[in-house]
């Protein structure tokens, strides 16, 4: 991934807008030339911090204009990363040791004797505090055989929450498949609105930056407000938006019709992770033929998404059956085996 990212970053058009950020009242933006400089600065910072060794970097940060530089710099430093909640559960000694966390980048002072403040770094007038976690020995490094791109923790919906380490080989096919099947180009802005601790946010991020597309980032307050999120999509010219069906249910019908209408900036809506809405419900949205709506499904343990199915447009809604819309065809390098457990709940092994 390092060579691929280095090549893409090198050829970014300097004056093209690379990232946009909306906090609910104001917009800020950064062109690819400035982003390239931010990445160079932050990569050198991480390489010096880690002494060139592979260790896990933890990010406890909110969405912001400097986010792309943090993520890409971690990758270019050969250091995997994880996004953590700013709560007690994320900083439990058991979890931190299980992760093998070495460094933590956070926005607010951390009053915890297990952490030592060693550095600060500033990106776009925002200061980040860098702490060393003292619970992991200095000689613990990630070997070549253990290397992975990022880590995440499962929600616990299919059992006890656990740490998942996702290698490049798992997430990259997602990025390439979505780019090809959906037809994303550098002209399509990608909305980064998924919570950073939820792994689909990683797909959004790499979809944008590896395609040279503008990355439209929104604050947590905007993410939680359908009205503000719709405003961000239209004014930020975001063409790609993914969310869950349950979150999309929070949108009023008139908001959905604006989002999916003829004059909308949106071109692709991806609903994933849960049962897809019924054909009858989708029809009430009155989507315009220029907006394509997809169903996707996957497991954190494998990567992010494993299947993709076009819900709209299609001839006479033929992709829907009496049981609804299925999860679709598998993405590349993914095999699906369907089984039933004693309670007749359908499970998909990917």
Description:
This is Acyl-CoA synthetase family member 4. The protein has 350 residues and is α/β, with parallel strands linked by helices. It has two domains: 2-154, Rossmann fold (3-Layer(aba) Sandwich), CATH 3.40.50; 168-349, ANL, N-terminal domain (Rossmann fold, 3-Layer(aba) Sandwich), CATH 3.40.50.12780. Helix content is 29%, strand content 27%. It is built from eleven helices and 20 strands.
Short descriptors:
20 strands; 350 residues; single chain; 27% strand; disordered C terminus; globular; Rossmann fold; five-stranded mixed sheet; alpha/beta; nine-stranded mixed sheet
In CATH terms, the superfamily of the largest domain is ANL, N-terminal domain
Mean pLDDT: 87
Overall 3D form: globular
CATH class of the largest domain: Alpha Beta
List the total number of helices: 11
What strand order characterises the main sheet?
2-1-11-10-12-13-14-15-18
Whole-angstrom Rg:
20 Å
Low-confidence runs of at least 5 consecutive residues = 342-350
Instruction: Report the CATH topology name of the largest domain.
Output: Rossmann fold
Terminal residue distance: 23 Å
CATH architecture of the largest domain: 3-Layer(aba) Sandwich
Helix content: 25-40%
Total DSSP E strands: 20
Q: What structural class do helix, strand and pairing data support?
A: alpha/beta
Main beta sheet, described?
A: 9 strands, mixed
**Strand coverage percent:** 25-35%
Number of separate structural domains: 2
InterPro entries: AMP-dep_synth/lig_dom, ANL_N_sf, Beta-ala_Activ/Resist
Keywords: Membrane, Transmembrane, Transmembrane helix
Organism: Lygus hesperus (Western plant bug)
Protein name: Acyl-CoA synthetase family member 4
């Amino acid at each position: 991934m390092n060579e691929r990212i280095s090549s893409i970053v090198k050829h970014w058009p300097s004056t093209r807008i690379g990232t946009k950020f909306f906090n609910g009242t104001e917009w800020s933006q950064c062109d690819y030339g400035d982003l390239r400089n931010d990445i160079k600065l932050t990569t050198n910072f991480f390489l010096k911090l880690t002494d060139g060794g592979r260790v896990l970097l933890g990010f406890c940060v909110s969405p912001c204009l400097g986010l792309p530089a943090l993520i890409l710099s971690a990758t270019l430093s050969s250091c995997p990363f994880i996004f953590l909640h700013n709560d007690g559960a994320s900083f439990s000694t058991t979890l931190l040791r299980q992760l093998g966390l070495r460094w933590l980048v956070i926005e607010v002072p951390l009053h915890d004797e297990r952490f030592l403040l060693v550095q600060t770094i500033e990106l776009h007038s925002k200061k980040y505090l860098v702490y060393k976690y003292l619970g992991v020995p200095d000689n613990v490094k990630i070997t070549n055989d253990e290397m992975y791109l990022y880590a995440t923790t499962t929600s616990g919906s299919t059992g006890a929450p656990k740490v998942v380490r996702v290698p490049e080989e798992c997430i990259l096919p997602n990025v390439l498949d979505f780019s090809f099947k959906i037809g994303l180009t550098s002209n399509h802005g990608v909305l980064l609105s998924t919570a950073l601790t939820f792994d689909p946010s990683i797909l959004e991020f790499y979809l944008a930056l590896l395609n040279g597309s503008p990355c439209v980032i929104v604050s947590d307050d905007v993410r939680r407000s359908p009205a503000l999120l719709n405003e961000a999509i239209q004014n930020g010219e975001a063409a790609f938006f993914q969310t869950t069906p349950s979150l999309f249910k929070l949108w009023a019908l008139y908001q959905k019709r604006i989002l999916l209408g003829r004059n909308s900036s949106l071109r692709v809506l991806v609903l994933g992770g849960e049962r897809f809405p019924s054909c009858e419900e989708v029809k009430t949205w009155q989507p315009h033929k220029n907006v394509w709506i997809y169903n996707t499904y996957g497991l954190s343990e494998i990567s992010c998404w494993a299947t993709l199915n076009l819900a709209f447009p299609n001839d006479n809604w033929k992709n829907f059956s009496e049981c609804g819309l299925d999860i679709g065809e598998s993405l590349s390098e993914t095999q699906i085996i369907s089984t039933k457990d004693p309670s007749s709940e359908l499970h998909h092994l990917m």
